[in-house]
Amino acid sequence: MRDVEHGHVIAFKKFLQNEGHSPRTINNRLSAISSLFNHLIDKQVVKVNVAQGVRRMPVNADRVEAKVMTPSEVRKILDAPKTKTLKGIRDKAILATLFYTGCRVSEVCTLKVKDFYREQGYHVLDFWIKGGKRNRLAVNQELQILINVYLRGAGHDRENDSYLFLPVRNAPNASDTTRKLSRKTVDYLFKKYAKQAVIYGVTPHSARATFITQALENNCPIEVVQKTVGHSQIKTTQIYDKRRAKYRESASFAVRY
Hints:
This protein has 257 residues and is mainly α. The protein has two domains: 1-59; 71-238, Intergrase catalytic core (hpI Integrase, Chain A), CATH 1.10.443.10.
């Protein structure tokens, strides 16, 4: 680590740009390097943070770039997995978790069986979110059913410390309890089913943006949406707001020539 210099970080930034990564992703990678070197400085391993001074990519802080889907497009993706196999049942439950809670991919991967339970008559998912905080929320009936069907089929519904969603072994209808589901796997399956549904340009983050937009579209108070998706500040929730009303109010429709 002592051999890393300022120029290496700049070269890494250019590499990410050439690979087509988004400005937000590039900035996140640079922030991670900066945090690492701050830690190394605290431990007296290095003397300089080589990521400081590397210019971050400009991003639009007023809106999230993730594409928002219509309810019919979401339904097509949810109906894409073939539920005759354990993998299909699992994938549908994962997709439903993304679309019905607005959670992040990392939060899906870290869910455990004990994080899905009943309380005061409601089925609840208890997520670990950014900042090491817990975010507990009641989930609707469709998601309840899909998770319960998956757990019964996978057979680990009573193993409280097991991860909720598990990789599927090569053997048919068998879970791999020795491994954790990766973010890469969730990203892959989301894009695979979106492609099957003939919907392009979407990512798992689109499910989060769609959840927030649909909740606001259906008159859910923004404070409630903020709490549900685990935003620490309401202005973060506001930049996800892509309601159609904003398009309907375009000044372009008032112009006549």
